[in-house]
Amino acid sequence: MHTQNLKNYGLAAAIAGVIGSTLVACGSSDPLNDAPTIKLLSSKAEFVTSGDALIDITLPKALTAAVLSVKANDIDVSSAFKADPANPGHMVGLVSGLKLGTNTVVSNYGGLSASTQISNFPATGPMLSGPQTTPFNCQTQDFTLPDGSKLGAATDANCSAPTKVQYLYRSTSGGVLKPMLTTTALPSDVATTTTSTGVTVPFVVRVETGTMNRGIYQNAILFDPVTDSAASPATPPKGWNKRLIAVHGTGCTAGWFIQGAAMGVSPYTATNQTRLGEGYAVFTNTLNHPTNSCNALLAGETTMMGKEHFIKTFGVPDFTVSVGTSGGAYTSLQVADAFPGLLDGVFIDATFPDAMSIAMSAMDAKLLNRFYTASNTTAVTEAQMASVSGHKTARAWYDLALQSGRTDPVSGRTETIPVTGSLLGAYAAGVFNPAVPAAQRWNAVSNPGGARATVFDIGRNVYGVDAQGYALRPFDNVGVQYGLAQLNAGTVTADQFLDLNGSIGGYDRDGNYTTTRTIGDAGAIKRAYQSGLQLGGNGGLASIPVFDRTNFYDEDNYYHYQWFHFAVRERMLKANGDTKNHVMWRGGTSFPDLFGQTTAGKAERAAVAAKSLAEGWPAFIKWVAAYKTDASAALQRDKVIKAKPSEAVDGCYTLSTSPQFQAETQTLSSTGAAGTCNAIWPSWSYPRAQAGASVAADKLKCDLKPIAASDYAVTFTTIQLTRLSAIFPSGVCDWSKAGVNQTAVVPYPSFGPSATNLVFDITKR
Asked: Per-residue pLDDT tens for 35-50?
């Protein structure tokens, strides 16, 4: 029932989106033929920023000699509109001077009129992410521009700074891009590049840096300042292939209360230089880097604003795709899902569904570690506990447990989690970026009103807060039978199983252990789903290509485990009925490789990662380009599935310095009996999978059912059954049912100030 509800909601949302974006002309039964139509090109009409909008007006086919009149709030703006040479019958104009709030645009052509309303928000935000986080520390003074200078001191409390445009070029001698000292003549050593559309231009990149939504943005594009016309939607640079890439960063820990002094991934370095040379434009923002801002809702809003600004500067792209690694992968997924239509495809690696999936499974792993540490080691072994955790090794289990630090606000708290052999270092709780002054940081005694360094508190607008202003928490482990699979397999005894579940406990709001299990806040749980902070897969992801590469393969270290990739796929399967728009390629380098701790097999793994990227990107782009050119009336999801090229199939790479692609449907297994790819790149799971949950890890709070003897492969004694009933007085998890308050993502969810799709307003709690 739940799966079907998600499917129906996704379809209804898609239909509503189409209806909501269709502007019906006044007094016309056929607006496409009998009257003008108005369409915003730069953003949705409900979400305009900075006081201007790029607007397209389709002229009636029946009239040819009339004069177009356009007014914005009764002010004539007709002169802004020019004929679109690429689109006969269309007039395009950048309308500026919009006021904050509601604006009305009216067009008239030969006595036939149309109108639309536009909601305009300030460039400093917010639109729908809720009240802006405080404290917030500006870092424009520390942000380095392409020429090595700094952006400069902030000019207001919103961390604004003047926009700066600089030019870089590739030299014929190679190496990194070099600053251009003048824009009146090209350097004598400038290289040329031929784009994907066959245009050869000087390899000169225009980099624009400014501020929006309190973050620092950059966009980069091939642009010859000597011969290209000034940047405008009507005169895009000749080197742009009309394709746009949204870049997301990495990480999460310490991603709060700062603007960010650097991008997670620069738009003009490394791989992005290759893309720029092919003609792609790239845009990003410091708030799209989870290490600066671990808030996917804010990242989505920022992506909206960044794309809008790019379109108003250069014009409408043929398509926009998102790329990201690790934290950038889940940001790409979450933005694409919660903001359907914003992105036309995602190309990701080192994938997680969301930051929540790391945090929640890490909290379970730390509880298991606490039980093991407190137990008599003769009563339960480390190997047994590693099995209960679902991981390949104890080191992998411990590394996941270390990640629970992002849920713990108590700075400096120590834990007994082993760190020998870990690449992560010791347990780190309440971690702040150094830019956050000590006086701003929360302390239960000395500063109870301070900023709390947790993944929950940075999302307080979604989760809500308690009477003291601390974020409500969606973590819940009531009814979870840790080690159920091991009990049924006979690798732990009935008494060990009962000891574990009777002692596991939970956490309070401050991350302290409790003897009782944790009850998640029902409202916070529901809003986690509605906002997309808990990835659902039923929104925008249902109808775009999702290309998932492993890139980093390591089941022993650093918590980037394969099951997270499969969690994304399983959520999409449950939401949409199949995963025909999802492709998974496995194989890549390891984290010990990156940290210089391994030599054996390093070259082979590096070759796999390189070939996966070299072959994956063209397959992905071919797929996106194909469905975007399908002008049929078919549903977008059907277009995507139909357009899928033959090379966009599941598979993995052989482990060799000359790796070969093995086409094979990917499955989660730690045994080679499940296929060639699992033999080369085996996968393990996580604690709740061993408790009976699916790999989707999508139920924040399970529905409960009465204890039934038939669920167990062992026969409990009367005393043991009494203990079991006492441990689970309300019943145990029924994983066959939807989670409590599990619901679909709300497309373009608002948490204020926008009234469109308003889910929750924390100011009116």
From this structure: 789 999 999 999 999 9
